[in-house]
Automatic annotation (TrEMBL), chains A, B:
Gene3D superfamilies: Chorismate lyase-like, Winged helix-like DNA-binding domain superfamily/Winged helix DNA-binding domain. SMART domains: HTH_GNTR, UTRA. Keywords: DNA-binding, Transcription, Transcription regulation. This is Phosphonate metabolism transcriptional regulator PhnF. Residues 4-72 form the HTH gntR-type domain. It comes from the Bacteria. SUPFAM superfamilies: Chorismate lyase-like, Winged helix' DNA-binding domain. Pfam families: GntR, UTRA.
Length: 236, 236
């Protein structure tokens, strides 16, 4: 039977200790020298274990400062129905939306194409932050056809939840038609909004939501903090 | 009728010129001063137009160097069947896999859980680069249950395509059961593999592939170059 490499055993032990709460999110792990002494191995072996844990997202190494336990990222399911409040509640956290801007303005060419509108047709723009337990997970800018949803701007300013605002404007249900995912660096503004450093990795999604009859009602751009959210796609 | 803001008109014009090939991927755009003179506006308005184009991924600004036309990212569909060679051919490009490593070793705890194996059961590890038209799009590490697929290591070293190697080992079809997507910074090694700078954003996917009967046959980790690939998820 093949022997488990020593670094694997060390990584497994440390991962179990993180799982058991001996080290919590944000805690600094002991130094390489201390871990080498504890496990009776050289620092190269410790480094291999820590690199493996970093690759799996369990820890993050900050140059010159040490190795820290990563916060468990929020699992964010992308399926036929994507609902922020439901997704966050399902992860045992308290959802909240912070409104940065609600305005009505002419659509730009990309919004026109995404929503199937005439050039310059009015759209409701909703910009805000999505939080879980008070921590910002994402920055979003959504646009809706104002012609179809004349009361939406007022409702959004009031209720902040897109699902609830759409319901109050006659859209009882909506479905995710498509999602495109890319990775970007945080701009200075986004870093400020999300409490990240400029250049930190963001997951950017561009989504189209439609009514069950296929009418396009929302184009959503969302930038998730890369270290706080994992998008999960199940094919059932 | 609401008036289109000037910066939107400028962004639309420049985007059309990029689309028409006046400026090509990698080209430097004229300076802000030159664009301000051309459009008869102040530099603030030009900056707003360029920021909008950057947000849409059309251009990238490099501090101190200027604003450059971004390469159109490869659209990479994530659905029930994900096939690298097919995906890249569908985008009109030439797919290629470069083998970095094929080896058989005991699985680690995460691999055991993902593939439903006993601790330490042997897995075939396939590490490599995925290229389109000679440009590296992704770095991947896939693991397969060696007990189920005893000839796979030899076949992979020979054919490089996972689909073809699985077919030659009796797996005629396989399906994507789940995909998890996160954003990370490129490590020094990954930056080297993908021709990026250390810290550049990567899209990381963790995928489980199963046979039509539900047997787990592959756990795939892939790191896509964030500026070269957009994952697209259609809900049909």
């Amino acid at each position: 039977m093949p022997r488990t490499p020593v670094w694997t055993a060390i990584a497994t032990t440390l991962a179990a200790e993180i799982g058991a709460g001996h080290y919590r999110a944000g805690d600094k792990l002991p130094t390489e020298a201390a871990l080498a002494a504890r496990f009776g191995v050289n620092r190269h072996t410790v480094r291999r274990a820590l690199a493996d844990m970093a690759e799996r997202g369990l820890v993050r190494s900050r140059r010159g400062a040490g190795v820290f336990v990563a916060a468990a990222p929020t699992d964010y399911p992308i399926g036929r129905r994507v609902r922020f409040h439901q997704n966050i509640r399902a992860s045992g956290r308290l959802p909240e939306k912070r409104v940065l801007r609600v305005e009505t303005r002419p659509c730009d060419p990309l919004e026109a194409r995404a929503l199937g509108l005439a050039p310059g047709a009015p759209v409701v723009v909703y910009e805000g932050l999505s939080l879980a337990n008070g921590t910002a997970l994402a920055h979003f800018v959504s646009t809706f056809p104002a012609g179809l949803l004349p009361g939406l701007a007022d409702t959004l300013a009031e209720v902040s939840s897109v699902t609830e605002a759409l319901r109050r404007n006659g859209i009882a249900d909506y479905l995710r038609a498509e999602t495109r995912v890319s990775a970007e660096r945080a701009s200075p503004t986004q870093a400020l909004h999300l409490g990240l450093r400029e250049g930190d990795p963001l997951l950017r999604t561009e989504a189209i939501n439609v009514t069950p009859e296929g009418v396009r009602i929302e184009r959503g751009l969302t930038w998730f903090a890369g270290d706080r959210v994992t998008l999960s796609l199940a094919n059932d």
